[in-house]
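re: ur question from yesterday

yeah so i grabbed the chain u mentioned. its 310 aa long if i counted rite. heres the sequnce exactly as i have it in my notes:
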Amino acid sequence: MTLSHSQLKLDQVFNYLEQVLLGKQEKIKLAVTCLLANGHLLIEDLPGMGKTTLSHALADVFGLNYQRSQFTSDMLPADVIGVSIFDQSKQSFTFHQGPIFSQLLLADEINRANPKTQSALLEAMEERQVSVDGTTYALPRPHFVIATQNPTHQSGTYPLPESQLDRFLMCLEIGYPPAEAEYKLLKGASSRETKIQQPLLSIDDLLDLQKTVHNVHKSDKVIHYVMRLLAYSRSEGQFPNALSPRAGVALMTAAQAFALVSNRDFVTPEDVQAVFPYVAEHRLRAGRGTLLNSTFSQKILETVAVHGDS
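ran it thru and got these structure tokens back, copy pasting raw so excuse formatting
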């Protein structure tokens, strides 16, 4: 697809999603950015904020096979990945796929599952494959995990380890709707009334857009700006965790995807700044409780100049 054609398609996508999730244009744009960047999305928020609604709407608009898995304290890795069952008629084991074998998986309340079950997602999210009993199974393309987690101060939660958090390209909260949007909800506006009958983009369209992201131009000026952000995060004693080279690649890819959804074929420093808190904060804060606080990433943005000596 050409950039103009893809933008026309994306405009239709945003028009629909903004009817479904009222008053949340910025968070919708970030969620689509994460999908186009071929990443995974972590949403930390209170119940009833629209996390499931957003996940359903993204699956509908892109025509993705969708499954929701409710994570609980007694959940086992096989409940997510699948299990091999012995078939007596064939005298062999047959693998039965779990919900991870979907194009969009909503892992609901992921931090209510024990660490062993959480870790079952690591290979799937990073390699887009799972290994069971010595056999490797490829996951469908595209493969997008949206995980929700409750604020970590709530009882019955297990903090996500650093390795798990790093698998999520972006982390965001949806938050309360603005007054005008909440008025419409109370008035009786329902997302069900706007449900589309067929996808606005095909799977091939989405895969093409994910490829196009990597062709969005990134100048040396932008690359050096990202490098300064990464370097400052590694300042001795400044932050609980530093941003790794992999986090830097994630930041650049997210900025490219954000530029694409903003109808540009080049990245600006403003694109980097727009996605930086959502890419960086959960990595900087890993192991330090709630993620709904962007003080670390904001400090970096406020300190590091766009124009440096490089």
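noticed a couple things. The longest strand covers residues 82-87. also The radius of gyration is 20 Å.
anyway ttyl
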